[in-house]
Amino acid sequence: MSTSEPRLEVPWVEKYRPSKIAEVVNNEDAKKKYVAWINAWLRGKPQKKAALLYGPPGSGKTSIVHATAREFNWELIELNASDVRSREALRQRVSGALDTGSVFGYQGKIILLDEVDGISTREDAGGLQAILELIEKTRWPIVLTANDPWDPKLRTLRDACELIEFKKIGKRDVVKVLESICQKEKIECPKEVLSAIADNSKGDLRAAINDLQSIALGKKTLSVADLQVLGDRAEQENMFEIVRTVLTAKSPEQALSVTRLPSLDYEMLLQWLSENIPYQYEQSLQAIADAYNALSWADIMLSRMKREQQWSLLSYALELMTAGVSSSRERPPFKFVKYSFPEKIRILARQKEKFEEYRKVVREASSRLHVSTSKFRTEVQPYLQVILEEDEEEGKMILRSLGIPENKINVVFKTEEKAHS
Ligand SMILES: Nc1ncnc2c1ncn2[C@@H]1O[C@H](COP(=O)(O)OP(=O)(O)OP(=O)(O)O)[C@@H](O)[C@H]1O
Ligand SMILES: [Mg+2]
């Protein structure tokens, strides 16, 4: 990757977040229910003081709350898992924000408790109790979001909330959003490319927009050929998303959440992080240093774990490599970054490929000579090398008879060009 290529850009998912409720696309039923609930608040008589928006990622749950705050000029108070770990933590976080009038001229407040399903898995019953009390006492609308709200532990919480289901975004709307982004970014992009991105996103608008930005980085015209990147991405889809989740996590818990993925390849994650930390944290040397420091400890833990068969060390390694890596206090604001495939793995893969090719050629030649491959390597190959250097034509002829075509000669032998380079 050349250094002149722009790597850092405002993430389009942020840049094009809806600023009005009406701009939240799709999910008409959910929107209608949500608007009715907000209207009940405006009249001062909500049946339920909290709403729980649930559904798949990238469907607009967080967006609709942000849009509400902007549309009504309400102050948005965002709480995360660590704010609600205990009653005391919650009180500290919200009492000031809720009781005082606002100095910024807001006309109201709305409280967003994002991703509550992340809380339930922890053993903080105190936190759940605190949320319930907050709902009981609040003078402002509270919105909770979750991907999967059906954990039995969340039952009391569900009962206290208006339940509003969000669904995957239909393909037509995904394409429409992508089209309008292309227009605003002055990017020319054939419809079939957008359609392919939409298919690939499976109704997750965040993924679709991120994909579009990935393939459009540094370009103004896109073509079907650019989908190649997307193809690679489909295979590596998880790694891209996992790396982004870790490096841009808003809380240690969020970074840690990737370790619960059943298919997480942590050795691979280590390589991916090691490759991409400097890009994501480009604006802060301190953040880069902190992240690498945590990552190096994770690396030490992993090798100790393998050497001493101390499997219990795995959880420390995983915490260091996720929560640790993302926890620098100097972390720069979230920028959209195009991640790279780890160079180390690429080199290893290339070497492996070359070695495979070498083995294939040698196996063929040695079987024709009825010798073992090691005998070929030690007793035949050096002579062939000499012949090749003394009389290239003669050498090539012999090699052909051994099943080594001209274009494979340099796989096994030093050739002219190589000798020079
Ligand atoms: N219905 C939508 N209308 C317009 N934009 C959307 C919609 N849904 C998602 N987006 C875009 O995708 C991004 C991510 O959406 P959002 O944060 O609202 O997802 P979410 O439903 O909260 O997902 P998660 O469960 O992962 O938190 C937004 O910033 C916005 O750009
Ligand atoms: Mg969200």
From TrEMBL:
GO biological process: DNA replication
Transmembrane segments: none
Gene name linked to the record: rfcL
Protein name: Replication factor C large subunit
Domain AAA+ ATPase per the UniProt entry, residue ranges: 47-170
Residues the entry annotates as binding ATP: G55, P56, P57, G58, S59, G60, K61, T62
PANTHER family found in the cross-reference section: CHROMOSOME TRANSMISSION FIDELITY FACTOR 18, REPLICATION FACTOR C SUBUNIT 1
Segment forming the signal sequence: none
Keywords: ATP-binding, DNA replication, Nucleotide-binding
Species whose genome carries this gene: Thermofilum adornatum
